[in-house]
Design brief:
Helix 2 crosses helix 9 and helix 2 packs antiparallel against helix 10. The chain has 312 residues and is of the alpha/beta class. Strand 3 and strand 4 form a beta hairpin. The strands form 3 sheets. A 7-stranded mixed sheet has the order 1-5-2-6-11-7-10, sandwiched between helices. The N terminus is likely disordered. The chain is built from 11 helices and 11 strands.
Amino acid sequence: MKKRKVLAILLTAVLSLQLVACGSSGSDTAKASDSAKAEDANTEEAGSSEGGSSNHIVIGCNISVSGVNDYLDEDDNLTGATVELMRAIDDKLEDYEFEYVPTSFDDVFVGIEAGTYQGGEANCFLTKERIEKYAIPSENIGASYIGLLVKKELGDLTSFEDVANRQKSEGLTFYSMQAGNGLTYPVEVYNEEHPDNQIEFEYTSENTNSEVNNWIINGRYDVGLALYSNWLTNYVAEDGAYHDAVDDLVWIPIQIVGVYNLFNKDKVDQKFLDAYDAALKELKEEGKAQEISKQFYGYDPFEEDIKDLTDK
């Protein structure tokens, strides 16, 4: 097994809760500190080859999400579903060595764009902007299961189209969403494809992925979006933050969206992306990717049928 190095970074700002679907938080101080430290490590240890590509791949790992994607355990060791799957990929790539940097969500992107990190783990949905800006593998590192979060009396909603129709007929309100947020994108796509039956909502500059829970519980809005992991962690779990409301609300599965790691286009080449994809695909075929994910999530994020997942 190859030697792995984890660069521990002391975050200088209190990290805000976010969903896995690429929300935003962090301070400018934290970003600068994290990127500077990783830059030092990158300069000292990274090898080089033609085109700026290196066999030493520094990965920024977002630990500011409340969940089990990437986090520091009680001994301050980096672990989680995403980083452990990346370690399994690393084990298969004899020509590359990964180094993992636990950091904030914002710094993952700052670091990738600055070239401090060759790649980043933030479990991101694909958007037009990200496809243009980053080198993105073909194989998804996982998936997010998007659903409607509503009071039980609205439990007969089954789709975005239903929401749009009942906004017109009943005046249902849809929660405010942050422009550029991963959860916002599927609604924008729906609206583009259904110009005559759009979901009406307001944009906000703030990440509302956490606020949506209280908003639906308190009746500020009728309809919100939430990930399956949010529903399991915050509602179904007996120690969940909103477990007391689990009998009043319902999570309705809508669609599966693949999530991906992102890489700097100038720091990795197609040879690396092809090797990464081949290794990850092999792990899925072997069942190892599912095994790792079930260990942390309790379910298989590579399940192709969301109905099969939520009916289990």
